[in-house]
Amino acid sequence: MSRVNTVLGAIPAEELGIVAVHEHIGYGMPGSELDSRWWKTPEERYEETVPKLRAFHEYGGGTFVDATGICNGRDVDYYASLSAKTGVHIVACTGFVGGDTALPFFARASVEYLAQQFIHEITVGIGDTRRRAGVIKVGVSRGGRMTDLDKRIYRAAARAALRTGVPILTHLAIDAETAIAIFGEEGLPLDRVLFGHADDGVNAQKTRDTWIAERGGRVGFDTFGYETELEDPPFWARPRKERLDHFLRFIEQHPDKALASADANCSPLGWPGVKGHTVNYIFEDLIPDLRSAGVGEALITRLFVDNPADFLTIKN
Ligand SMILES: [Zn+2]
Question: 185: how many CB neighbours lie within 10 A of its CB?
């Protein structure tokens, strides 16, 4: 049977429903919990988060993939309580957003140590929670090229993906030649990898999305909602129409390789965060925009239900 690990246990992939494949319950840089200026109480985070997940559920959303790695405020017992409260399946990740957010303990670890860490979190559980990760996060550090640590993390993730059947989700799809070489050396088929943030304003021009898809990789247009039209847009924002047109061009060529999400924070940790959109951008803006552009219901189902289910299914 096809299975996906959620924070409340494994479920059949057919039960995922509409998936937001790259989101955050709460993301913070390592050490943000020490910043007394911005830190929120658990009650404040909860109050900020529950209405967003409730709305997601009411819109017809089934599954929320939390792409918050080790060291960035991941809290799976908290996610489990949110999932039980709202009825939204939550998939947690193991791994790191990038080498530059791995604390020194992990930054100095060997490839095999990191692989064992990821495997433990996927097969036994995260810490002593017995809640299992359903996806492995890796990423490219700031600077545009994979660092030596990024490469070690990618290699460890490839080994953990092969041994557990859980897929890999990347932060940034730049320097994809280096990533694909590592996955190739480890023997990991590229349909087990979602190369994320192919659509953001900083990296879209440098991302070889069709080249990745032609090699079998999946491509994430997963920063929908970070628009230059926002009142105070982040540096990775992009004009709304430009991103949508980019996505429409891609799905015409590679509908099976495309995934979309909003990369929004329900309640950012330790800093005020970007204001302006939530995971529900998918229902309030993106799906209506796709329909207006003539995208049919069958393709919408493929993008938000079938493609993520195939990606997230544990494949041994
Ligand atoms: Zn993210």
Answer: 10
Could you give the CA distance from residue 117 to residue 115 in angstroms, rounded to a whole number? Answer: 5
112 C-alpha vs ligand 1 centroid, how far in Å?
25
CA dist., res. 39 & res. 48, Å (int):
13
Residue-by-residue DSSP string for 71-139? TTT--HHHHHHHHHHH--EEE-EEE-S-GGGS-HHHHTS-HHHHHHHHHHHHHT-STTS-PPP-EEEEE
Band (pLDDT 50/70/90 cuts) for residue 250 is: very high
Distance 202 CA to ligand 1 centre (A): 15
Distance between Cα 196 and ligand 1 center (Å): 9
Is the pLDDT at 38 greater than 90? The verdict is no
How remote is the CA of residue 298 from the centroid of ligand 1, in Å?
27
**CA–centroid distance, residue 136 to ligand 1 (Å):** 13
CA of 288 to the centre of ligand 1 (A): 23
**Distance from the alpha carbon of residue 171 to the mean position of ligand 1, in angstroms:** 7
Q: Is the Cα dihedral 107, 109, 112, 114 positive or negative? A: negative
Query: What's the gap in Å between 279 CA and the centre of ligand 1?
Result: 11
Question: Cβ distance 125 to 118 under 8 Å?
Answer: no
Rounded mean pLDDT of the chain? 96
pLDDT, tens digit, 9 for 90 and up, residues 111-131: 999 999 999 999 999 999 999
Question: What are the backbone angles phi and psi of residue 12, rounded to the nearest 5°?
Answer: -65, 140
